[in-house]
Amino acid sequence: MKWNEYGGIARAAGSLRQYYGLKAYHDTDSAVDEWLNGHHFRCVAAILIDALGSSIIKKNCPSDGFFTERKAEDITTVFPPTTTAATTAFRTGHTPVETGWLGWNQYFREKDDNIILFQNISMYGDSTYDESFSWKTLPVMPLEDELTENGICADSVWPGWAPHMPSENLDAFCDNIYRTVTKPEMRFVYGYWDALDTCMHLNGTHAEVSANMAQEIEKKMAALAKRLPADTGLLIVADHSQIDVHPIFLEEDKEICACFRREPALEARSMAFYIEADKHEVFEELFHKKYGEHWRLYSHEEVMNSTMYGEGMQHPRFSEFIGDYIAVSDDGSFFCYKSDEVLKGHHAGGTREEAEIPVILFP
């Protein structure tokens, strides 16, 4: 895919922002605009189902089901197609290059460590950081918080691990959404559900258990839609899709690893490499020779001068987060590095399949 093909999820977010009288930082989504302005909803529930990409619906859900019948369009997520970057884009209307939220783990010089942003723990070590480290270091303003600051009642609903309005299962999640939107003053609700992504990581996108879960989610969303008040709109999106993958055990490649000045960062399918100053030429030659058929390698300068991570003003720390090189997988391979978790499904690479997501609208 070309870099200018990414970013539809930020445009959909811009439509929501514009509907509530806030600034849209980029172009908006015309289909979402038409839906919002045509219905004049009192309240909108925007639910993001992790990894429910267009291809997942097509392969695992019935062709006459709720998701397909109510799908208004297919759009693209941001690059990389991964939760850290995409959910932040959807909740803020900003692209990854603007927020600095680029991938699962990022290197922070002040800690001299690769930190998993959503968990505030070390990627390769045992260190644990303040639970708000990522939010304080890379501050963003989610839509529900910005609306609240502007006197518009908004809230959010989460899986069971979250401190705010946790839901122990999908039924509880739907009940929490319903109870929240039916409050007379409520204008906007954001909901996030992650179980499908975890399931497909472990089992693959074609597994029966993955198909069963996707179908269960579809049934629950259809039932929720029927319960909603007439003045409430339901918008369902995904942050990315998934594809079936196979590992490359990178730490076994002693020649490549000998070039590292610190551990790789970001994602297993769009990895940032930090290379010793005198080994750039060697690293490039080795990488192209070993992986060039299926991976694209971009230098720091090429990434800085591109729109790979979206349009907009570069975050002050963007340059350090992308390392010396970004490698992007164009097939089903991913770099498994210092991990014994060999996944069967994954995302964050450069294929169209993992980037296309649905926009499902009800009514």
Short account of what is shown:
By secondary structure, this protein is an alpha/beta fold.
Folded structure, characterized:
This protein is of the alpha/beta class. It is built from 16 helices and 18 strands. It has helices at 8-19, 30-39, 54-60, 66-70, 83-92, 96-99, 133-137, 143-149, 170-181, 195-203, 208-227, 254-257, 280-291, 300-304, 318-321, 352-355; strands at 43-49, 71-76, 105-108, 113-116, 121-122, 154-159, 166-167, 188-193, 232-237, 243-244, 246-249, 260-266, 270-275, 295-299, 325-329, 333-336, 345-346, 356-362. A seven-stranded mixed beta sheet has the order 2-18-9-1-8-6-7, sandwiched between helices. Strands 12-13-15-14 form a four-stranded antiparallel beta sheet. Helix 3 (54-60) packs across helix 11 (208-227). The longest helix is centred in the middle third of the chain and has 20 residues, at 208-227. It is globular, with a radius of gyration of 20 Å. The two termini are 32 Å apart. The mean pLDDT is 97.
What is the percent of helical residues? 25-40%
Low-pLDDT residue spans = none
Secondary structure category: alpha/beta
Strand order of the largest sheet: 2-18-9-1-8-6-7
Shape: globular
> What's the overall average pLDDT, rounded?
97
**Cα-based radius of gyration, to the nearest Å:** 20 Å
Intertermini distance: 32 Å
Number of helices: 16
Number of strands: 18
The proportion of residues in beta strands is 15-25%
Task: Outline the biggest β-sheet.
Answer: 7 strands, mixed
